[in-house]
Amino acid sequence: MTLVEEGKVIGKMELELFGSLSTKSMEGVMEEEKKFVALLRERGYKYEDPIYSLGFFSSTHLPYIRITQRGIYDVKKKTVLFPAIMR
């Protein structure tokens, strides 16, 4: 996961194994997550758990608009509103 501001990477959590697991120790992951969340909070993220939120942004079993590999997807209408690659 990467946080980019004005075109520059300002924070990241590397999940090297299948994009969902880290090879770091649990303590290392916890420290990295704490820094990542602090950066988000400084920028106005107000919800409890941003990592948990990311999982729901793409969950197409939930209604309304979701972010998928195909693009921005309207679950109820079963249509891609904005393709991932717009030409």
From TrEMBL:
It comes from Halalkalibacter wakoensis JCM 9140. This is Adenine deaminase. Pfam families: Adenine_deam_C. It comes from the Bacteria. Residues 1-78 form the Adenine deaminase C-terminal domain.
